[in-house]
Write a structure and sequence with these properties.
- The chain has helices spanning 2-18, 23-30, 34-62, 64-84, 88-105, 107-116, 119-150, 159-162, 164-178, 191-210, 218-243, 258-288, 293-321, 324-347, 357-379, 387-417, 424-450, 461-464.
- The protein has 480 residues and is mainly alpha-helical.
């Protein structure tokens, strides 16, 4: 059951990262503009973010297996549409559909784990969830590079989407027989709130993604201006619905929890940097340094591996040493980004992709030490009855910030890089300084709330592998 469910986690992460190594191939084959390339990456993250909370609620109401299979089938069909796309517009539409489908299938994974697994084994199952997500990110970059280099059946970039079709079909078939028919608490659906959250994000993302190519027309500024009252009206509706006894998409009580909101803001700042960093780094390697897709993927690989190692170590080290661990992570990110910027400024377009690996290793390890600590600290400030809503809001902020980061810093990158991205090295050095500032701000916010953070549980070997004697009580496990 767990293996089938985790295909959703793997595929969502895989498709988030695999496109990074295909950006220049897409530009050449489809004549995609800078804005369209940005939307291929950020559009997926946008619809994924906008639908996560709603996807979780639909699973509670209509059954986890039913929504999982529906989401997986939709994701498979959207992947087929992406692979057959004949224009950038059709590809962007397919990516938007992929994100919505991922938002339907992914929340069901942890819901199934929480509902089906006994407390003694739940920690091991959720550990696999995190590990598979990391493996999806690594595989997305590496497998994507290999596929593009091999040019399987002459399909080029199309294979990075078409590979999902047989996997998704197999997952749907197996899910029908292996996933249990479970239904959670029958939450009342909030269509107004779900629509408002989606439209608010669209008002921010669309002008940031398309504004530069269109010459910053009036509609772009109007959308950005309208996003401010849209945020206010969305939050007002959520409060009103809660006061009437309804169940809003975003629980307003979470916003009164200052440590939680501070730490979620820190996660948002981190994701603003991280999503944009992965996107602009892929452009630098392929367009600026003329690395092949496979060479770019192999350059990404040590960073991804160190990120996974840092993530695995973060929980244990943070429980033992406290805030110093994520602070060290922030310092490693700053050092790595600073070294990256210095290399690009000093050597310019004579830089080789392999020269960047030492700085990327520092960044990858730092990311792994910092991000899990931010998320763990945020969720430690909410009770079990709020855990589902808090996790959903946190995931939404993560994906939304990543999407906005790609749009915002992608615009800056393209503006500095110029026509044909001839100055990609200068553009990367420019945005890197903003990435350093965002990382520092995340660490400062973490530090201001750390004194109020409950002690994080220390994970020992027995807990990691589901030993009955060391497992937490079922009532102590938040329904993520």
């Amino acid at each position: 059951m767990l293996a089938v469910a985790l295909t959703a986690t793997f595929m969502a992460s895989f498709d988030l990262f695999i496109v990074n190594v295909a950006t220049e191939t897409l530009r050449a084959d489809l004549s995609a503009s800078d804005a369209e390339l940005g939307l291929v990456v950020s559009g997926y993250a946008f619809t994924y973010a906008a639908g996560l909370v709603t996807g979780g609620r639909l699973g509670d109401r209509y059954g986890y297996r039913r929504i999982f299979v529906t989401g997986m089938a939709s994701f498979t069909f959207a992947s087929l549409l992406c692979g057959l796309a004949q224009s950038p517009a059709l590809l962007v539409m397919g990516r938007l559909a992929q994100g919505l489908a991922a938002a339907a299938m992914v929340p069901q994974v942890l819901s199934l784990v929480t509902a089906r697994f006994p407390a003694a084994h739940r920690g091991r199952a959720t550990a696999w969830h995190g590990a598979v997500s990391g493996m999806g990110a690594i595989a997305g970059q590496l497998v994507g590079g290999v596929m593009l280099e091999a040019n399987i059946l002459g399909l080029g970039w199309r294979m990075v989407f078409l590979v999902n079709v047989p996997v998704g079909a197999a997952a749907c078939t197996l899910a029908g027989s292996l996933l249990p028919k479970l239904v959670g608490a029958r939450h009342r659906f909030d269509p107004v709130g779900a629509t408002a959250v989606t439209l608010t994000l669209a008002l921010i993302l669309a002008p940031l993604s398309l504004g530069r190519d269109e010459g910053w027309p009036g509609w772009a500024w109007a959308c950005l201006a309208a996003s401010v009252p849209a945020v206010w009206l969305t939050l007002r509706w959520q409060r009103t619905l809660r006061a009437r006894g309804g169940e809003p998409v975003l629980d307003p009580s979470l916003f009164r929890n200052r440590p939680y909101t501070t730490l979620v803001s820190a996660v948002g700042l981190f994701q603003l940097y991280f999503g944009a960093y992965m996107f602009t780094l892929a452009l630098l390697l392929q367009a600026g340094l003329d690395a092949s897709p496979l060479a770019a993927a192999l350059t990404f690989l040590p960073q991804a591996v160190l990120y996974s190692i840092g993530s695995l170590l973060s929980g244990r080290l943070t429980a033992r040493h406290g805030a110093v661990v994520p602070e060290v992570g922030g310092m490693l990110i700053t050092l790595g980004l600073g070294l990256l910027a210095a290399q690009l400024v000093l050597t310019g377009n004579h830089t080789e992709a392999v020269d960047l690996i030492p700085s990327l290793i520092l960044v990858g390890l730092g990311n792994g030490l910092l991000l899990p600590a931010l998320m763990g600290a945020a969720l430690s400030h909410v009770g079990p009855q709020e855990a589902g809503a808090a996790s959903g809001a946190l995931n939404t902020v993560q994906q939304s910030a990543s999407s906005v980061g790609v749009a915002l810093f992608g615009t800056i990158f393209f503006s500095v890089a110029g026509h044909g991205l001839r100055e990609a090295y200068a553009a990367m050095a420019t945005v890197t300084f903003a990435f350093i500032a965002l990382t520092a701000a995340s660490v400062v916010l973490l530090r201001t709330s750390w004194a109020k953070t409950p002690a994080l549980p220390r994970m020992d070997a027995a807990t990691s592998f589901g030993d009955e004697r060391s497992a937490p009580n079922q009532n102590d496990m938040p329904p993520c």
